[in-house]
Description:
Blueprint: E1 5-6, E2 12-13, H1 15-19, H2 37-43, H3 48-56, E3 64-67, H4 69-72, H5 78-90, H6 93-96, E4 100-103, H7 128-138, E5 142-148, H8 164-173, E6 178-182, H9 193-207, E7 212-215, E8 233-235, H10 244-255, E9 276-278, H11 290-302, E10 307-309, H12 318-324, H13 327-333, E11 342-347, E12 350-356, E13 362-368, E14 374-379, E15 388-393, E16 398-404, E17 406-412, E18 417-422, E19 446-449, E20 457-459, E21 464-465, E22 474-476, E23 479-481, E24 484-488, E25 491-496, E26 503-510, E27 521-526, E28 535-538, E29 549-554, E30 560-566, E31 571-581
Parallel strand pairs: 3-4, 3-10, 4-5, 5-6, 6-7, 7-8, 8-9
Antiparallel strand pairs: 1-2, 11-12, 12-13, 13-18, 14-17, 15-16, 15-18, 19-31, 20-25, 21-24, 22-23, 24-31, 25-30, 26-29, 26-31, 27-28, 27-30
Helix pairs in contact: 2-9, 8-9, 10-11, 11-12, 11-13
The chain binds alpha-D-galactopyranose.
Amino acid sequence: MKIWVLLGIGIRAVLPVVLSVCMCSCSPQNRVHLDTGANARIGSGQDASALHIYENELARTPPMGWNSWNAFHGDIDEQKIRGIADAMVALGMRDAGYTYLVIDDGWMADKRNSEGKLVADPNKFPSGIKALSDYIHGKGLKFGLYQDRGHSTCMRLPGSFGHEQVDMDTFAAWGVDYIKLDSCYAEINGRKSSDDFGVFKECIVKTGRPMVLSMANYTDPSWAWGGQEIGHLWRTSFDIRPRMSSVYYCADTSAGDRIIHPAFNGLWQFAGPGHWNDPDMLQVGNLKTDIENKAHFSLWCILAAPLMAGNDFRGMSETARNILTAEELITVNQDPRGIQGYKVYDDDGREIYNKPLHDGTTAVLLLNKNSEPANITITWDMIGLSGRQKVRDLWRRKDLGRYSGSFTAENLPQHGHMLLKVGSRGKPLATPDPVPLEQYAVTQEGATFLSDLYYIWKRGEAPRYDKSFDGKTIVMNGTIYDKGFGCKATSKIMFKLNGYAERFKAVVALDPSYQGNEAVNFRVRNEDPIGPDSLLYDSGKMTKDTPAKVIDIDVRGIDCLILTLQGKEALGNWADAQVVVSN
Ligand code: GLA
């Protein structure tokens, strides 16, 4: 859904450039309707100041630190972690801003103690977690710890489900400052993700200790159901790997249309001080070349992504250290205005991102992902500027001069890029308008066709709006449908009902163009893409010969609805998909 505009100088701009004429300087975050029971409970009777601190004082800029997973996976012990803490101080990482030292999965014993409390693996951490936490705090660092909201962690160690308060109390007693809360095995908790994470928020606030909550929910859409009100950061991607295809995939979950409708131009409107999109931890220092390490770091900086380093600081090369501590890049990432950078240009792998800063200047990334070298030109109208503008190269820490109308980064090799600061200090520059709620959520009485709304999350191929998946009119059992979606199995699409709709209705069948033998299920879920408790409707197996089925179900109170076409390859239609709110 890219809309290309010829700018007369041989470059093309994406939709936001076109929209830049109606830019606004309002806050990017859309505080949408949220009705998690947990959130409501927190307000009543809990320590108001602990709640205030949790909601207003933590993670005002993207968290920075180090996490053990990318470097060591489960192969951790207290010697290694102390060594990392020492290196964070000795190599200047702490002073550059990397303050959280987070121990990921693999730290605990495989059983709780007789009081039902978590204990450290006695072989790996013989001195216990409190002693390690003290050591880390003694270095002027903050301490973070991993846990999982399911019955087990991803490494099958004891998870927190059913032990939420005792575990958060234990964490608080150990002096934890940052909790990474994972989601393995959480689908059988019988709670929606929003409620589940909300329970942890409540337990954390109850401890009275300010602890950052990092929600590891893979690609599942925390921003859609109000993650902003629950935790401080949330994952947007599956696990990052030490290769560029993975780095670009992760970045694209946050800045591209991999998991949200292209009209949003990425997830930028859902981020801001205290709530960040997290495309996963850094692989800087673990990639093959410096050019790759730098491109990765620049992307995370411009996207206001959390900067959780994932390389072994103890044996880090001088170049890896220089990249991670590049002061002018970190300043862009940590800019107090907290705008997540967004794409203003995308020509098949030649990309430009823009991040307006608090001081009136803006950070601009020009990146060539392709194997052929490229020139990339930014014109000032893409970023709401005109005339002559100052340009500074942030990697080289050098003013390049004043440029009229545009700037060209020349001969960029694959993964080559420039990160610039453009403009002069003054009134902060405008951002594009965020997509208004009524374009992606049910806000009106009567019937709303879901194909009149942007989906807020998807997995698998994007649906075709008001057409079959291969672009034809939707026809099933001889009936023509003007509205609905054509999908290819397996696909999941989420719509925000906003707790406002009463009934969901649709007519479903495989598309007549599909003549294969695969069977599919049409499933409707409440918020969570998997797990028995979220299932509201299941068509049962349907093949090309199964007549269309009519869905008409109660969806009162539901915030986010997922339509799943489960199967392999087959094409199916959600014809006339709509929700109804009585007048
Ligand atoms: C999941 C998370 C990773 C890491 C591992 C630990 O895969 O996404 O970041 O925490 O679990 O087992």
